[in-house]
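Backbones bend. Our protein:
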Amino acid sequence: MTSRVRRPAITAAVGAALLGVMVAAPPAASAATGTAACQAPGVAWRVEYQTQDSVYGPVLTATALQRRTLPGGAWTDASTETWELRRDNLPSETPGGFTQEPGDLSTLQGIPVVTYLSPRFVAPDGACTVYTYPFSNGSANQPKVVAVGDSLTASLNDATYNQTHIQGYIEGNFNAAGIRAEVEGQSGKYWLAPPNSNGQPRTGIDKAAYELLDEVRGLLAHDPDGFVLALGANDAGQTAWISDAAERQTRLDAAKAAIGQYVAELTAAGKCVVLITPPDNLARYWGSDPWLYASAAQQLTHEMRSLANASATDLVKLQDFAEHSWDHHSYMPNNPQVWFGSDDIHLNAVGRLAYTSEFAQAAEQCV
């Protein structure tokens, strides 16, 4: 069986395998095959693939793309639809980010990806993402925890550290605690995607570009022990741009409902969910009113606290970064330890260590 453990160090030379060049691969006859799928309400998507050994480790190539209607539908060909292939960046690229390539099967099957870069395929409707080799770190018998978040989470990386732990500080700290990680830290992510430029709800892959529900659904298929969800700052900031109070509240209510959707889907599957609250003190979100940002963020924080407190099964838990960070903003007089940069949302070096600790503590609640 192919090892699922990532190599401890990565070199730039592996880039050749990521750009469609099959490096030192054996003949096709020796290729192993596999399938992976994801599921969303009313639909499932599946990727068939093959892996071949190379000097960089196993290299994966898609061989078939399929769809079926739930419940009970048969698998049908989806190879002519537009999917999106993603893989983790190398440390020499943007550490902790990902590279993406849209296309149908004829395009994507020409792009082999080494498996320790977690190749995954966003489904054409954006409802879920098919992960082929997640949690490729740690040992196979260790518990698995998913960590997803916005630019605060994405900042928990650096080019040197990611040479050893390609998904950054969270992966390294989870592994140190005996936990396997799959990390999705992406800038500009929301609980609920904002409207498009015409004021209409986003759909398909466009919607998936602003949310993390497709990733969460895809990773659920790999039976992790828990999910750590850290979103809300962008929802609060986007709401703070709205001048009309009633419209602001409508937007916030929709975001709170979206939090509930994540929680409902995961707890229905019996999964532990830890909600990390966003910074909710005064902050300068891209020119918005700091007071409106704080008001919106505090409503979202209250919703997360309420969901955790109301959990009858104790599957929903809280890691209250809003509370823990309250006195660590740049404008606090005589503050011995500031965690934030000048906008009081994004983290400085000290804050990144503190935020990493929040994730580590959150994961421990699920194992």
Summary: The first helix runs from residue 15 to 18. The chain has two domains: 31-125, 144-364.
